[in-house]
Amino acid sequence: MKIVSWNVNGIRAIIKKDFITSVKEINPDILCLQETKAQDAEVEKAVSELSEYQLFTNSAVKKGYSSTAILSKIEPIAVTNDMSVEEHDQEGRVQCAEYVDFFLVNVYVPNSGQGLKRLDYRQKWDKDFRKYLNKLKKKKPVVVCGDFNVAHQAIDLKNDKSNYNKTSGYTQVEIDGMTRLLNSGFIDTYRNLHPDKEVYSYWSYRFNARARNTGWRIDYFLVSKNLMNRVEKSEILPDYFGSDHCPVLLELSAD
Fold this sequence. Notes:
By secondary structure, this protein is α+β, with helices and mostly antiparallel strands. The protein has 7 helices and 12 strands.
């Protein structure tokens, strides 16, 4: 089973940049999108050419903001949106698709913002999201993918020293949030399989960052520990364009 996660930074924008061709070329069984920045009907229209997939959306209350979508060739048992925590459930950031032998959670974690003005909120989010995932994990194994808006280790961003505790996505608070999540029984599949690889999944649109490969690895596939033996491949796909993020991929073997 091939699962792909991609922060598209606006589904209506990326659709004009060979997105459909890219998806057909990668050919995932399940595609998780973050930051669609569109309402349900707009997402449906944008991806209408991908008719082999069932579409499930979670759009923010605020139009043109945040929002997530799952496209699946395999019919899920059920799909639910949000964490059932009122203060977190307005921005379309979480989806959970239940399959026979695991839950798949698609997430767009809040950015701590310019000047770290949302860092306190981010800390609360991390705690509540961890609790949500661990509750799911008690029922069956969990795969969680998406834009986590944190570089967990120095190897995960180009300029670690100049960004540490100054830039959203690389503060000790955010690093600790990811560490606690991993310590609660999840594995970062890419880093597990590629302990020394410096590969990034996000590049700012400014300063010619992508051409210079001044990037961050903030897009992840995590799995609960009892699923790691089924992980055949965890890759970052930097040759696909259209967003300031590239897609990331997970392949699972049959049980």
